Known about the structure:
With about 450 residues, this protein is α/β, with parallel strands linked by helices. It has two domains: about 15-285, Aspartate Aminotransferase, domain 2, CATH 3.40.640; about 285-445, Aspartate Aminotransferase, domain 1, CATH 3.90.1150.10. The chain contains 13 helices and 15 strands. A hairpin with a 4-residue loop joins strand 14 (about 365) and strand 15. The relative contact order is 0.14.
Amino acid sequence: MGKLSGGIYHNDTALINLQSIVFKKFILGNQLHPDCFPMLRYLDAFLVKQSVALYCSMGKENNPSYDISDLCGVTTSGGTESILLACLCARNYWYQMNPLLKTRNQKLKIIMPESAHAAFYKASSYFNMECCLLPLTNDYVANVNLLESYIKKNKGTVCLLVSSAPNFPYGTTDPFAMFNSMSLKYGIPWHIDCCLGSYLNPFLQDTSIKPSFATLNCWSLSTDLHKYGYSAKGVSVLLSRNKNYRAYQYYKQTNWNGGLYGSPTLAGSRPGALVAVAAFTMLHIGLNGYKKCGFEISDSVIELKKFVSNGITVKLENGTIIQNPLKILGDPKVCVVAFTFKYSDESCYFLGDILAKKFGYHLSPLQKPAALHYALTRLSCTKENIERFEKCLIESLKEYYEKKLEAKEKGELKQNDGDTAALYGVAGSTVTAGVAGKVIETFLDVLYE
Ligand SMILES: Cc1ncc(COP(=O)(O)O)c(C=O)c1O
């Protein structure tokens, strides 16, 4: 239990039973036909309204004139769809505001940190856009000091600024202030990707990393119900600052033989059962439940950061003692902790392979830099699991160093760093980078064989 990084977010039997009952009840539901499924329409809107309320929960008291009634949204099939739609919406809006760019078929740009999710690249490739990558600081957040120069350099073609709260690789949250002021100054839409922070963010104690429509000028925000909302896979929410802006993501066809057609998201028919499951999940867990889970997960993040940076002593058979060989990347506070060796001649992929093969802990390998990340969930944030993980990490480090010594004694120049390192070696080399694409393609093919 809890040995997987992210992936499965809870194992609450009562909740799974409830979800199964609700799924069965709504199994034929489809939001494409609100007239046939009025209850689904209600539950769909309920999810958006609750998400709006949670993502405004901070700052209203200092901003009495703030009116949340403009905020709106849609439910989608997951984080990726929410992000695709956020990009499409910004692109359509910018073309509408700058018709010459559309006439010239000018590719529009998304400025995003290097740590932004792969879904933004997917959006840029689907919608003929281009990603401009903001480098990261030493704290693994967007280097916002470069934001304005990037906007200026791209001379009116930037249609979207993106930040993450938090990002997938390092679990760090990009600082809000500069995105906020640049969005205001240049009138460029700003999307905050809260797909991962989802229903943890509204309960964070550190207000500097807590996104809220009431304090920020963001235009859209994605939050995944199927992550820390604890729902079944297939539901996310894309929130928008107002109905005018949201309309740029809608698809409308008034000229079709099949009648007037409109759809708010990418899919046509939509599996209503998932929306119903998500709504009942939200009601079942409730505000206090989300708050409790959030506190437990962020407490585990704090514990793990402390342990990885300062709590490790590895004693080798020959009496050598190695103290704290690992470092945390940045200062994550929400749910993900990423770490790597302090010295570049070590291979954290090999360490990850040992953790997986010997102890069953499957952490995610990262690139740039090579590192491992552990996304904590309700399964992994228990005291029992954290203590077990800490022991397994020390044991894995011991095996890692013993193997390294063994290789040295045998006169081998380098230990075999294992399959993961080999794979990432291929991906990271300019000579073999194309092969990595082929590996991905083959992997995807095999899934259907
Ligand atoms: C920050 C972030 N954004 C977007 C996504 C994409 O979400 P999905 O896998 O639901 O499409 C993820 C997934 O882990 C994520 O961590």
